[in-house]
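Revision sheet: structure tokens.
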Amino acid sequence: MDNASQVVDLLDEVHHLRFTAERDVLNAWKTYNVSERTRQLLSEAGRVIYAEAISFDGSEGSKTHFPKSLATLAVECLAQAFQGGSVPDALTCQQQRDFGGMLDVDLPILQLLEVDNELFWKRVARTKIRRFGDFLELERDKHFHWKPIGIELKVAEAISGEDPTYWFEGCLEDILIKSAPFVKKLIVAHLQHSKTVELAEGYEGYKLYNVPSELSHHGSLKVLRHLQNLTSLSLTFGPEDRCKQYQRRFFQCSLEDMENLAEALGKLQFLEHFKISKSRLSPEKLKVLLNQLALKQLKVLEFPYCNLSDDTGIHLGKYISKCPPCLHTVNLSGNFLSGKEIENFGYGIYVYEGILDRLDISYNPVGEAGILTLGGAVKKSKHLRELNVSVCDIGEQGALRVAQLLGFHRPLEVLLMDCVPLGKTGGKKLIQVLKENWFVQEVHCKSCGLKESQEERVKKILRRNNKFIRSQRISSTCGASEPTNAESEPQ
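Predicted:
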């Protein structure tokens, strides 16, 4: 045991060296290096070669007590003192990578626009993306360019964190102007209220908690006009965490906000996706937005959880009846759209010149009448490849109408109807129409009152359908002549 201790002491006493990982030196090191357990053997007491006293820059598992190299200290100093500009050209490739790993991701965006370092921007994305799963999805692409999304995240953070009072007086406008070439997709998770509300004379000493909507300003959203390369814009007015600070005033927005936003939208020539969520849009506010959006070549329109209720359906119907035919997705989930509003919206779908591929009206009290009018609007058309009516207050008769829609509307391939009571009649009808329709790919019907045997039957039919659809695609890609309806549908 004393000899073993002596061996350890000798290792501490010999000179330690650090090398770059050159091929020949690294191979020799692997040949003579020994494990920690082998080094404790008595037979090693007289050894004169200590390969473990050598380490390599960047080698994993290196157990040394050396101070950092001068080159590493220089890179650290450059990263800590960075005040903007590009990565120093004098750095080697490895040093540039080290620089990207040391640079602070919370530096102001204006200091980072000229930084071309993929590792750094990947770190920004990893830090700023809220859901880690979304980051992993991006990371799957080994050739993904991280700088644009990193700048988009930093710009969105600047908008959320800046007091609206100083949007034009501070540096926010300068940020948007200089970052405009990089920003194509902007997701603002939370818009702050303006903290200055003028009180009536005699009430200056009071604090106003429930600010009325006409005074709930969010700064001038005209500032977004500088992002002229935007293709996707998503704005959230309510708080990020639904479980905290859930008070009505945090979801309010003023008509002036919508007018300013509409003016900014007029400058965004490439906009294809527009979304507002967690807000309270009155018919007047919605009309202001839709009048401007009708002039855009939108492909996706979303208003989830925006308190849409009476008299909003007619504005949505007018919009879709006159908008360009490129719109293919509409999301109206989480609102208060009744059967009457769906009827007005359905008329717009009926006269729409394009093809509405996806419609989400989940979490809306549409009722049986709403389902009937929607079915009539899309009958004998190419609309609605995907429909979501989950948690809609439609009752068993409404659920039966949804099941019947699968039977007569051929384009419908994906149906989401969770928490909709099918009942005994609706369950049998659903299985019947699925057996006859070979083109339905997905049906989600959790908590719909189906028996376990019925749920298994639905899954079995869907597996049959997907197998049939895959065979059709393989046949078409192999150059086979496209079958007719009579040939393609098994009897």
